[in-house]
Request: fold
Amino acid sequence: MDDFPHHFGYSILILVIIHTIFVLIALLVTSGRDPGIVPRNLYPPVPQDIEHNILACHLPQIKEVIINGAIVKAKHCDTCMLYRPPRCSHCSICDNCVERFDHHCSWVGQCIGLRNYRFYYVFVLSTMLLFLYIHGFCWLYIKRIQGLEEISIWKAMIKTPASIALIVYSIISVLLVGRLVVFHTYLIIKNRTTYENIRYKYDPQVKCYNKGVIENFKEVFLSSIPPSKNNFRSKVSIPKELSESSSRRKGVDLRETYVDISRLLHIESMQRQVDSFLERSSKKLEINLEVFDEIHDRESNWIIDDGSNELGDNSTKISTLVEKLKEEEDDDNL
Reply:
């Protein structure tokens, strides 16, 4: 800091901090703003000729719209059940139709569309300028050391390894981010999106959006941002049919649970009777162990599966076993 006259070093530090805060704000606005999501329909649109032909229930996948004298195709989205507006596309990651869809940025974690494209461009541009700023002042600091100590530039670079690390890092970052800035500047000049440039590069319908360089920049940066079509703070209303079906499903689950508990209680009571007779019996009985194993196995299956048909068979086996024990005990008493 003290190597620069008149506390110039503090001004450099304050400026880079302000610039970094601006970059973070641009990132936050880009990632947290609605990119232009088109609300979904609960039901598919009704065909226009449904009144004339009752059987005309098939929706055409493409509608033709005239924009600036050119015919533009509006596709039907089966997921959102609507006809997409011009320049709108469905994002496979966000699973939403986005107006003027550019691309889905994994670094930002958000789709880039109509309502946040200008902020995305400002974020990328300011990030590149920040790296250029750091790169330039690192070299200025090295030249300052060289002039003060009257040494070669290589020795000055050895004295400040942090500046060398920042120079290498800023070069790599400028090469990566700078390509994005150049590419999106080209797209703004042509009034295209990344999606249109990749998929419809040679399609003549894309040229109808080009209004000239100045008008294209005005459209991106100076035009008013349309309000969001979504109220993310509103409560979600559940349709009556879904609520009734869910309540019926809950009632069925409760009845099934009650039946399972009653089965378990019945089996436990029968098993307690068997154990009590075995304890009271003084004579050893030759009991088929396979019956007990089968009963225990089926008891465990009743807890998991629906064993309504097997309940009567196993209950009969337990009852038969209890009756045999009673008869043996009566014979012993006689």
User: Anything to note?
Assistant: The beta strands are 37-38, 62-67, 70-77, 82-83, 89-91, 96-98, 103-105, 110-112. The chain has a mean pLDDT of 76. Residues 132 and 146 are 21 Å apart (CA to CA). The first helix runs from residue 8 to 32.
